[in-house]
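> Could you send the Secreted protein prediction when you get a chance?

Sure thing. Input:
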Amino acid sequence: MSETIHGSCFLLSFFCFPLNSHVSLGADTISANSSLSRDQTIVSARKVFELVFFHPGSSLARQE
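Output:
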């Protein structure tokens, strides 16, 4: 009986997981021949993520 309960919980979580996930398509891109200056960032379309690029050894003082 416990195997049936565990199997049911697994199936329930398997089918509920896609309801909470978001589908993302690659619309926010940068190409190989594009460049960013020191003060530029890449921000996702919904403004959820922001990518900041830096060189190793550079100052981290401008991070918030």
